[in-house]
Amino acid sequence: MKRLPYVVSLVIATAFLLCSAEILFAESASQIDDIIYTQPVKSVTFSHKVHVDAGKLGCEQCHTKLFEMQALAVQKKQDFNMKSLYQGKYCGVCHDGKAAFASNTQCARCHGGVKGFEAANAEMKDKPSAGSVKGPQKPVIIGKGDSSVLFSHDAHTGAFKCSDCHTKLFSITRGQDKITMDKIYKGQSCGACHNGKKAFSSDQCGKCHAKIPAPKTALVYKPEGIGVVKFSHEFHTKSFACADCHSTLFVMRKGANKMTMEVMNAGGSCGKCHNGSTATPISECGKCHVE
Amino acid sequence: MKKLKLPTDDMKQERLDSVSTMERREFLKIGLVITGVFAGGTILSAMSNMNKVFAAHEGKVEKYPHKPHYSMVIHQDRCIDCERCVEACAKTNDVPAYGYRTRILEKDSPDAIGLKKEFIPVLCNQCNNPPCVRACPTRATYKDKKTGIVMMDYEKCIGCKTCVEACPYNARYFNEEKRSVDKCSFCYETRLSKGETQTACAAACPAGARIFGDLSDPKSEVFKLVHQVEKAVWVLRPEVGAEPNVFYMKG
Predict the structure, then answer these.
(1) What is the Cα–Cα distance from B179 to B90, expressed in whole angstroms?
(2) Does some domain include residue A3?
């Protein structure tokens, strides 16, 4: 009973912190300009501000089952009309009188008409050109633990539109995509741009990965006609740092490195250290090639 | 004492006995004539004000003097300012860009809950008591006896634009090409006289905001809408007394 006030205040403080954390990280779509439809009638204004900020809708509630990410893509559809809305399609999913006002009431609330279109155009001319629409401010953490990557939307939204990545490369819902280095090397996911041509190559591990732990399992090489080689990172990282081998000697990609005895004899690959002075020479075949 | 001779002694004394009967009669006759003139004038002016004092009709008149009695009902809540009606009208009736036969007005109610904006289509109301017809000096504009449409005779119009001033709905404009005032005629020349039943604007509206029809036909949509009491039906500027034939409603 003595400690009760402390416990109570602790509970309240925790609850407050949890709530405020949500608010701090809440996604703000108010940076997105109003979308003005001109088909089939001129014009209907859709405001993300009203729906996301005031209405507190999450992105995935509309995208992409109801609406594509590409603005105005839906007005190309032949059935994008009031009839469809009354049948519960498109906006009619919510605007049915229950979740939001019925779509056959308050027409002028969405329909701005020719006058609304002209007013909006005049407004657009005064606004600075929509170069960067900010994405979610909350950092996207891909992966878990030491190998996780912190993805920053801000670094990308300066040069790209939402539709450049969403949803052909990445889903809108966090945690839904399985992003592996394999996929990236194949040109999927981040690899669509991070291939050395559009953006820095995905071989530059440190650019995204803050900390890359060495693989715990040994790498197994099966050369023809001779014993299997098991390479242990654990053993080597006791005395060496990642940068000692990566990426000048070995690219961090399976099968990307030419590992032949010729190369090693010439001082490349393993031969850089396994030359007799730094480490056991490669002439001692049995040290690596195990039955 | 000697009586003083005063100048007034020679003046004729005006007394009852110094005015003859004939003079009195003449005086009375003159008085009656003047009174008669005044009385006649008063009666004449009273007669011309009879219409104002005893209003022609109060409440609904169930007689429709025209056959068909063309009329329009506008569902104000359905208008979305797509302006397809304006475009259709301009195309059908050769309305120039600087002029208009119909317009969409915008009304903002920033303090309203929910819906804050309304669009109101306006056009010539084909009034039953048209101020423009009264104002026209050449009778270039007249109310057609058969259809009730206020017509324009472009040949007679002298472009004085008194009718433009007189119209309480700003429905008229001066057409430079025709060199005459022009206005909505319910598409009479272009559609109704050719057998069409709908005006261009009513046909073009995608929201069904304009209902056009014959008010004297009990089966018509306009008759049913005007004669129900559940939803309010009103006209614009009733205080002018023009008795318009275009009705507005919501719902």
Answers:
(1) 17
(2) no
The ipTM of this complex is 0.71
Are residues A110 and A48 part of one domain?
yes
How many independent structural domains does chain B possess? 1
Identify the sign of the CA torsion A251, A255, A261, A266: negative
What is the rounded CA–CA span in Å between residue A230 and residue A220? 5
A145 shares a domain with A113 = no
Here the CATH number for the domain that contains residue A40 is 3.90.10.10
User: Does A109 sit within 8 Å of B116, measured CB to CB?
Assistant: yes
A42 vs B contacts (CB less than 8 Å): 82-83
Phi/psi of residue B123, each to 5°? -155, 180
Q: What is the mean pLDDT of residues B136-142?
A: 96
Assess if residue B43 is contained within a domain: no
Q: Is the pLDDT of residue A130 over 50?
A: no
Q: Which of B81, B116, B206 sits opposite A113 (nearest CB)?
A: B81
Residue of B76, B117, B205 to mutate, testing the A interface (most A Cβ within 10 Å of its Cβ): B117
C-alpha span between B89 and B101 (Å, rounded) = 7
Distance from CA of B216 to the nearest CA of A (A): 31
Q: Which residues of A touch B116 (CB under 8 A)?
A: 109
Determine phi and psi for A166, rounding to 5 degrees.
-100, 130
Structural domain including A277 reads 219-290
Does B119 contact A112 at a Cβ distance shorter than 8 Å?
A: no
